[in-house]
Amino acid sequence: MSETVKIIILAIVQGLTEFLPISSSGHITIFYHLLNLEEPILSLQVYLHLGTSLAVLLFLYRELKEVLTKNSILPILKMVIIGSIPAGMVGIFFKDFLETIFHLEGLLPLFFLINSIILISSYFIQEKNIQMVNIKPIKALLIGIFQALAILPGISRSGSTISGGLLLGLKRKEALLFSLLLSIVAIWGGSLLEIMTEPPIFLKPSIIAGVIISFVTGYFSLWLIKKALDNNYFYLFGIYTLFLSVFLWIKALFI
């Protein structure tokens, strides 16, 4: 199997799992080992993230325009910055540790199990009516801590931040919007950090193809998670990662 085909497979996996609350990093780690890729996993994943971040901007164009028309951008920007601090600190000070964690496939079942608990717990949270523009700094910071936890492979960023937002009283649509705004900062911040510390690989044709594919599949996953939230099916993704966790544990013990 050629390197280009392998990266295309990873791009499809990345796009489909980036915004669905099943952990793109966890799935990328699984496929990274299956495909025996030679590229540094964090470096490759960062560039695939660029495609999915562009999908966010396109998908949320109308929603962002509506929110920013009715409200000042400054309060929202302030809360997004505050919410981005925990993940930023973890990414800066624990980069080498995270690189090691991404290569420890044996920890994935545990992280997927934690993800399942977070998602299934969201089913029992009654929706409240706090809008993103009215969120308090302490709540933005707490949601940011949820996002920092999701740096671990197997724990979903969207699943953690949306569940955290719902727990802290945000409406479903507002929790999704705030989660995606945080993801934009995290993706571009992580990309900048990686470019500063790793030789750039984004000019390779296979990487460019991967970015385009992750953009298309990422847009589809955004549409799907919005439908799941609207119909209160969000928790079902937790059942999927629970089965995945059990399968990986069985695989590690008996296969």
Description:
The chain is an all-alpha fold and 255 residues long. The chain has one domain (3-254). It is built from 12 helices and no strands. The chain has helices at 3-18, 24-35, 41-59, 61-70, 73-93, 95-102, 108-122, 137-149, 157-167, 172-197, 205-230, 236-254. Helix 1 runs antiparallel to helix 2, helix 3 packs antiparallel against helix 10 (172-197) and helix 8 (137-149) runs antiparallel to helix 9 (157-167). The longest helix has 26 residues, at 172-197. The mean pLDDT is 85. The chain crosses the membrane at residues 7-35, 41-61, 73-94, 106-125, 175-195, 207-226, 232-254. It is found in: Cell membrane.
Short description:
The protein is mainly alpha-helical and 255 residues long.
Structural class estimated from helices and strands: mainly alpha
Helix segment tally: 12
| Relative helix content | over 70%
The helix/strand series, from N terminus to C terminus, equals: HHHHHHHHHHHH
Evaluate the radius of gyration.
Answer: 17 Å
Number of domains: 1
Portion in strands: under 5%
Number of strands: 0
Question: What low-confidence regions span 5 or more consecutive residues with pLDDT below 50?
Answer: none
Shape: globular
The N- and C-terminal alpha carbons lie at a distance of 24 Å
Question: How is the main sheet built?
Answer: none
Pfam families: BacA
GO biological process, one term: regulation of cell shape
Catalytic activity: di-trans,octa-cis-undecaprenyl diphosphate + H2O = di-trans,octa-cis-undecaprenyl phosphate + phosphate + H(+)
InterPro entries: UppP
